[in-house]
Amino acid sequence: MKKHNLILLLGLLCLFSMTLLMTSCKQKNISASLSKMAPADIETETIDLRDSATQKGIKISSALSVEFPTDGCFLAVNSIQEWISEMLDGTYSGKVNDGKRMLKYYQKLFMQSQTDYCNEFMDESPKEVELYNGVKISKDYETEFFVTYRFASEAYLGGAHGSHYASGQTFRKLDGRRMDWNVFQSNRLEDVRELVSHTIQKSYFNMDDKAFQELKVDFMNGYFPLPQTMPVFIEDGVLFQYQEYEIAPYSEGAPSCIIPYAALDSLFSATGKSLLGSDALAATH
Length: 285
Known about the structure:
This protein is of the alpha+beta class. It is about 40% helix and about 25% strand. The strands form 2 sheets. Strands 1-2-3-4-5 form a 5-stranded mixed sheet, covered by helices on one side. It has a 3-stranded antiparallel sheet with strand order 6-7-8. A hairpin with a 2-residue loop joins strand 6 and strand 7. The protein is flat, with a radius of gyration of 27 Å.
């Protein structure tokens, strides 16, 4: 009787162990499948809005063009929609997924802003003067694991010349997380800065060491900074974008450079590398 019970107990233990093993294997297979599963592509709708008016004899106009995200991973789509609102002014309090309503709100806001500016600062003018504000937001590049949006604006409010602004944002498609300097190892940002400095010097300014040092002394207090806008992942590598007057006079435009992914490989954090590899879940663990 005791021998029979022992055999039965051993049999139950064996069955229990096999069940655990099979469950573990299934969980590993599910985990592996999830890590290779790419979120759906971001679908967009292009919304173009234009408006114009005359104030004190001066023409004012505004143009807004947005590739508005409409479908895809909900978390990523919602994150992009919120970012668009924030880039335009951040005051819209309605539902951000209603693209047309939101953009009409900002278009009206831009026109009112120009009207107020014209009334306060501009004299009535018989000349052909036009105050202008234009914004374009577009989906620039998308892979299995990230999508990058670009923002560009230009404005003229009188004076010698207009102004321009350019930036971008890379989103992780798995959860909509906005990427920033966290794509690089925190203790390697100085190496990133030096690489950007060298690349900008050669590829954008085309200056020798002496001329570039003089520019840094005259316009940057002798220290070359990383850009104020976030680095963004595009097709050819990471884009580093500076603004007018940020590191050079207006005549030099808005300096930028693209550094290939391979040249930055040793500087990427695990978060950054996950955007370029096959394991989209790596950065969430």
